Amino acid sequence: MTIPDNDLFLTPSCILGALNPGTEVLIGRIYDLLGLRWRAGGEDPRSQCTCCTGISSHGDVISVESTLLVVARLWSIAADLGFENITTACVTSFAIHMECLEMYEHEPGLAARVDGWLRQACGRGLRIPKHVVHASDIVHRYRQALAGRFRYSLVEQATGRPLRVVDHVGCHYAKVFPAKVGGAEWCDVLTGMIRAWGGETVDYPERRHCCGMGFRQSMIRPNRGYTMACVLKKLESMAPWKPDAILTNCPGCNVFLDKEQWAIRDLTGVDYGIPSLSHSELAGLLLGWDPYDVVGIQAHTTPVEPLLDKIGIPYDRSKERIAEERAELVQIA
Amino acid sequence: MAKQVCVIGGGVTGMQAATVLGGLGVPSVLVEKSGELGGRVPRLSRTFPFFNDDGFNDGRDFTAALERDLRANRLAEIRLNTSVREMTGDSPNFRVRFSDGSVAEAGAVVVATGFEPFDPTSLQEYGYGVYPNVITASELEWMLNPRGPSGGALVRPSDGKKAERLGIVFGAPFCSRICCSYSTKQASTVKERNPKAFVACFYMDVRTYDRGFEEMYSLALDRGVKYIRGRVSMCKQLPDGSIAIRAENTLINKPFWGEFDVVSLSTGMRPCRDADYLANVLGISRGPDGFFLCREWFRHPHDASRDGIFLAGCATGMKPIRNCMIDGAAVAARAAALLRDA
Amino acid sequence: MNRDDLIKAYEDLRDETAPQGDATWYPNIRRLFGTPFEREKDRLETRQAMEECEAEMQAWYEKARTESCTWWLENHLVARHALKGCISCGVCTAECPAAQYYTDYNPRVITDAVVSGSEERLVELLKSEMLWYCGQCGSCKPKCPQENNLMGLISSLRFLAQLKGYHLASARGRQQYAARHLWGGNLWNRALSFYFRNAGAETHPDFGPRHAQYQSQVDEQMRRVGASPDAEGLFGGRKTAPETVEELRRCIAWGGTLALWNQLEAQAAENARAMGLSIDEYYDRVRSEG
User: Smallest Cβ distance to C255: which of A60, A68, A332?
Assistant: First the structure.
């Protein structure tokens, strides 16, 4: 898979936007820092980005044809703006876009039918993009350039020890179309960043195990035990290596590897305390951007501050919460 | 004096062909690209099955005996460190040019170039080449040979400690006819030497197909080798270097989770790496699987697609040693007949 | 209140703005999401949209509902390419995280039912709990030596189960009614599948007190990092323009999804009646059981 180096259309992530919003905004900030030309939607009100329907699709409440149409609409907006390279903030989106591409390739006549429906639906035409990649592919591509701008690196400041970082590549990045990304087992998208940024990668038995987000399994409350069990399995497996952090590229993984650690501590008494960072968060921190105002680590359940201490990134803990006078009290109906 | 036969390949098949030709009064020039005769057999630790007494505990015992027979017959000229570069002419007047520049006239050619084990590095899920304790069947075989790196003992490559738990993955990634059998032989051998060892074979089928092989399989089971029907999804390395395997025991619908000191991948076998080159030089066809193709599948199983060229041994597909020996004799007869009539 | 009035009332509330620094903020979305009001409005609106839509796929799914399961396997865009034959090697089950968690689950049973071509076995599968255990992770996909798409097959079968109402026979299947309104409602109204206020502390106690604390200040926390909670913007929490929402709705409709949503609604109404529950009580029940 060729990774484009500029002219990127960025599609948003439902989960990042909802649960770790700084991460997503950071992608745009990183693109800006690298001097890349990018857009995340059109100017006029009818050309804004929407969800790719990934969650709804894997949650089985939307038809495959509706997904094809929604994605085709995004491609058409990108094309109208002159972009042929799609970068998705979300890994599920990445797989959804790829699946659409695959279907057009292998299903005779489908492209024409979808084009016809799209025109009927919203007056747009099917324009297949040249490249579809995930945002972490761009960060990976520019990892050395970014490292050159970093104020900090993945090294324990006090001892010079390279920090041990576990890579957790999203299943929908690595497993759904493994040939595109260098195979499902040892793809380099996150380990490349870890090495380039001074850290040490960790291979542990359950490295390739799903985080357990599982769409309907995590989002419908009675099912969430499954998610917890998967996270626990991974944490238990990585624990002997005492990792300093987990690096992710998928929003779901980023959130659940972070958030379930609290319940796990509550239920088992074991506090793993391994912060789960997305690639853009880690880049943002190493660039020296403010951990709370820009990166948004306060959204994490498992504290990131111990990692900042190790790296030597200063922070003002009082900024984690918004002072009461400034906070808006929200009444939920 | 009859014209000579050029035998390409100095493994057991080539040696047999040259010896039988000699017995028929036909001279041959046997070319072998490496510095030794015997091919891959010298690295074997045991043969299978064990019907007769000529089973050996070290492959070199067998090839040494073959070499004695070959050299006793003065009609075979042996050229080591030599390979075939070019061939002109047609049967029965071939002119073969070798890598040292010399030329030989031959009335017929025998291709006995053997096979090459598949390199499982590309099967990334098994971790071969990354995890030291994941090895190939060929490496396991040499390890079990008394002349091998550990004197025949099963050890963990990562730290040299004695290995008590062996996992064998069948058919990585495709069937080569004898892998189930040689794997069963290996498993059985390990259990025979160390009855306390835990040996598990992960299979999809057990194709111990030939005479005596089923008995060998039964013997392995009697010795306590575990057979689990399930494809191995991946190998994972534990902190101490042991390898964890997860598979489903599909016959009883239960997961199997095991930790091993060593995992051996019974790789499939490919044609020798020069097969493509040689096919061009000799002007003969290969099948879609890459092995050389015979002219007529049933009537002329040893004839290549071109007159005067004969195929024997693993060059036409994996087979046990005994069948290589049969092939070698068969092509010797074909070649001799051709030269008699020429 | 008639349908049009209800919809207008909702939209007026939704689109009401209030100033918030430089941004345009929509203060009522937080009062509308996930409410019985929104669900009722969606119910009426999607039925209307379906009546007015002449999408080929909508007609197709309507027809599919009355055909056999084996017909679906031969004709559905995903199902018909999903299975190339199964040798029961077990590598999918070996990898599958759900098979490790749900000890009675074995994805091969699903392929076996499909390969059997038996309508009876398929119906039994569609009515089972087991159909809903898969987490759609795709761990099976790169492993299958036959290159089957088990993940897609399961997804396709789940769609069929809902179309035909078989999902009502299992607790996990009944959850789909809640799923339709959670994700479908978010898509239909907010152009995304998950809205930031869906991650509230009350429904996510397992996320711990730090999360609860963050959520109590979520609007400000989001704004400070450059997101746009209930406001116009590019990133998290953004209020999408009605024109885009309309385009999205039409894409959803033209793909035939409304046939499913309306079926789910009809099935749920009947199921609720049978249980002696109001539709909203039913909604609360199915999303907390399983």
Answer: A68
Cα(C127)–Cα(C134) distance, rounded to whole angstroms?
15
Q: What is the spatial distance between Cα C61 and Cα B149, in angstroms, rounded to a whole number?
A: 66
* Domain contains C70: yes
Q: Taking the domains of chain B in order of start, what are their residue ranges?
A: 5-117+270-341, 120-267
A276-293 mean pLDDT: 98
Cβ of A207 under 8 Å from any chain C Cβ? no
Q: A 272-331 residues with CB below 8 A of C?
A: 292-296, 298-301, 303, 321-322, 326-328, 330
Structural domain boundaries, residue C137: 33-192+240-286
Contact B43, B142 (CB under 8 A): yes
Tokens 């379906």 label which residue? C50
Decide if A25 and C225 are in contact by the 8 Å CB cutoff.
Answer: yes
The two structure tokens encoding residue C122: 């398929």
What ranges in A157-289 are assigned the alpha helix state H? 171-174, 191-196, 216-219, 225-238, 251-268, 279-286
**What is the spatial distance between Cα C81 and Cα C90, in angstroms, rounded to a whole number?**
20
Residue with tokens 């950071």: A26
Q: Does residue C234 form part of some domain?
A: no
Residue type, C116: S
Task: Answer whether residue C9 is part of any domain.
Answer: no
Summarize pLDDT for C265-277 with one digit per residue, the tens: 999 999 999 999 9
Structure tokens at B327: 């092939």
Cite the DSSP H helix spans in B73-228. 137-144, 179-193, 213-222
- pTM for the model stands at 0.92
The verdict on ipTM greater than 0.95 is yes
Q: Mapping DSSP to helix (H, G, I), strand (E, B) and coil, where does residue C258 land? A: helix
**Neighboring chain B residues of C147 at a CB cutoff of 8 Å:** none
CA angle A178, A183, A185 (to 5 degrees): 115
Residue B77, C-beta contacts closer than 8 angstroms, at least 6 positions apart: B4, B27, B28, B29, B30
Helix, strand, coil share of chain C (percent; to 5)? 65, 0, 30
How high is the pLDDT of residue B50? 61
B287 Ramachandran zone, left/alpha/beta (phi>0; psi -120 to 50): beta
Nearby residues of B15 by Cβ (< 8 Å), 6 or more positions away: B30, B37, B38, B63, B66, B67, B69, B70, B328
Say whether A206 and B239 touch across the interface (CB within 8 A).
no
| Cβ within 8 Å, pair C252-A62 | yes
Q: Is CATH 3.40.50.1000 correct for B120-267?
A: no
- Residues paired with residue B199 on neighbouring β-strands, in sequence order: B166
Q: Which two tokens stand for residue B135?
A: 């090895």
CATH 3.40.50.2300 for domain A151-318, yes or no, is no
C155 in any annotated domain: yes
The CATH 1.20.1050.140 portion of chain A extends over 8-135
Query: What is the tens place of the pLDDT at every residue in A162-209?
Result: 999 999 999 999 999 888 888 889 999 999 999 999 999 999 999 999
Q: Is C93 close to B125, i.e. CB distance below 8 A?
A: no
What's the domain count of chain C? Answer: 1
Strands (E), chain B: 5-8, 28-31, 76-79, 84-88, 94-98, 103-106, 108-111, 115-117, 134-136, 165-172, 198-203, 226-229, 234-237, 243-249, 254-260, 262-267, 269-271, 294-296, 300-304, 309-311
Strands B300-304 and B294-296: antiparallel
What CATH number is given for B5-117+270-341 in this structure? 3.50.50.60
Residue C259 has pLDDT above 80, yes or no: yes
The pLDDT tens digits of the residues spanning B173-211 come to: 888 888 999 999 999 999 999 999 999 999 999 998 888
Which fold would CATH assign to domain A8-135?
Answer: Glutathione S-transferase Yfyf (Class Pi); Chain A, domain 2 (1.20.1050)
Helix axes C56-66, C242-254, angle to 10 degrees: 40
